[in-house]
Amino acid sequence: MPTKARGAIARTPGAPVSLEEFMIDDPGPNEVLVRILASGVCHTDLGVKMGVYGTSGYPFLLGHEGAGVVEAVGPGVTRHKVGDHVILAWRAPCGECRFCLAGKPNFCAASLNAEKRMRTMQGETLNPVLGIGTFCTHTLVHAEQAVGYDPALPAPQMSLIGCGVMTGVGAALYAAGVTPGSSVAVFGCGGVGDSVIQGARLGGATTIIAVDIDPRKLEWAKDFGATHTVNAKEVDPIARIKELTGGNGVNFSFEAVGKPQTLEQALFCRDLAGTCVLIGVPGPGPTLTLDLQRFFDTGGHLCVSWYGDCLPTRDFPLLAEWYRQGQLKLDQVVS
Question: What CA–CA distances, in Å, run from 18 to 10, 23, 44, 136?
Fold first, then answer.
């Protein structure tokens, strides 16, 4: 029997979002219906609403960070049962694509999603953002997109693991491979950047430099483990980072803004052979012009991190346990 739900729907790029009722068909094979308990807010949803990533695909059901309770399961579902508490993941490796078969499921090229069984009251097919849609009372996902967690843990904090926190922590631990005793600079100290700072702390970095232009964010960064802060409005961040690291630069730098200027700063604040990780989503349009000789002379690595190079079934329970143990600070991220 179809389920009546209510959610935040973007119909036209740049137009206000509407709160509407919509219908969800019963789960199909390997699908689960989830009642949302909490949803995080990510900048990507604003980009979808404004049409930054393109103007096709509307209407969208917004939201892609969610925690909830399984209310129904489709045929073939064995991982979950009704009543299970789950965090939703927007990537679920298929196990069959060229990357999965090569042992790199974090780069899966055919991530699993539910069939589009959600429709507006006017009969339009809803497009859930990143295959999830969490700004709602209920949503439908592939069973592999739902990762169980202990219901004793708070849903708001768990929902944040679903994207922003995982993206930042994973970028530090997996994409960059932050090592004990190393130095780190993080450009952009929003939710993702602060999660990078936490990941760097968990990885054993001893110098963690937070860079932003908002004094409030720099103060918050200290709570998550930043040992130093740099206001890029007041000083040259590259020069200041070099000064804080004995003239050398950092071993690992992270760009969590998505702008050419900050990416260039992240590249050239590194020590020789350092690693720079781009996390910020730039959207179409921005270009980067580099002094290639300077880039070559610095050496090292520049890479992009999608979703913290994570495996949700492995990493969501790990982050939830770190939260339980007090090692991962999530209460401070909930406002």
Answer: 7, 15, 18, 12
pLDDT tens digits, one per residue of 32-76: 999 999 999 988 999 999 999 888 899 999 999 999 999 999 999
Distance CA 25, CA 56 (A): 24
How far apart (Å, rounded) are the C-alpha atoms in residues 276 and 47? Answer: 24
Q: Are 295 and 267 in contact (CB under 8 A)?
A: yes
Distance CA 18, CA 126 (A): 13
Paired with 136 in beta bridges are 7
Q: Side by side, which strands form the sheet with 85-88?
A: 138-142, 31-39, 66-73, 85-88, 146-148
Say how far apart CA 1 and CA 91 lie, in whole Å: 28
Q: What distance in Å separates the CA atoms of residue 71 and residue 279, rounded to the nearest whole number?
A: 34
Q: What global pTM score does this model have?
A: 0.96
- Identify whether the C-beta of residue 232 lies closer than 8 Å to the C-beta of residue 257: no
- Indicate the pLDDT class of residue 300, thresholds 50, 70 and 90: very high
Q: What is the CA radius of gyration of the chain?
A: 20
How many whole angstroms separate alpha carbon 220 and alpha carbon 208?
13
Collapsing DSSP states into helix, strand and coil, what is residue 250?
A: strand
